Amino acid sequence: ITRYRFLAIRTHLHFVDVNNRLPNNKSKFWKIQPLIEFVRNACRNIPRSIGLYSIDEQMVPFTGRCPYRQFVKNKPRPVGLKNFVITTTTGMVLDFELYQGAETPFEDRSLGLGPAVVLHLSKTIPKESVLFFDRYFTTVPLMNRLNEIGIHATGTIMQNR
């Protein structure tokens, strides 16, 4: 495929009818929401068993115009879209949530953004599983809540949390 053919296809590629946007759709990614949901459902259909899981943030490299672009220093690709993922020990993605700022759909933010991400993504794993995450997500109240749910967790704790 030539470069010009690729650019022509990319220019006219749409996943939704932009003229018929649903008024109750508050997602910032509504133009590609069908694609996101297709990939998310495929990830959620992967069988899960009691085991070891990891939650972390990942950057989807993107340098175009997008108000949701983030800059996270000390990442291999610091500019892009922030994506929170839960993975197996082999790195297979089981679920994810694209960060949309304050409008990111997390049910309970009373413990903060990091714990809200962990509680949201850990809904799909079985009880008695073990979660690993870094200091961005770890708080003592989160560890207590996960223990109540029946999920074991390990994370680096900071003194100010």
Cα-based radius of gyration, to the nearest Å = 18 Å
Q: Characterize the largest beta sheet: strand count, sense, and whether it forms a barrel.
A: 6 strands, mixed
Secondary structure: number of strands: 6
- The fraction of residues assigned to DSSP E strands is 15-25%
Textual characterization of the structure:
This protein has 161 residues and is α/β, with parallel strands linked by helices. The chain contains four helices and six strands. The protein has one domain (3-155). The chain has helices spanning 3-12, 33-44, 113-121, 140-149; strands at 52-61, 70-71, 79-88, 93-98, 130-133, 152-155. A hairpin with a 4-residue loop joins strand 3 (79-88) and strand 4 (93-98). 16% of the residues are buried. The mean pLDDT is 86.
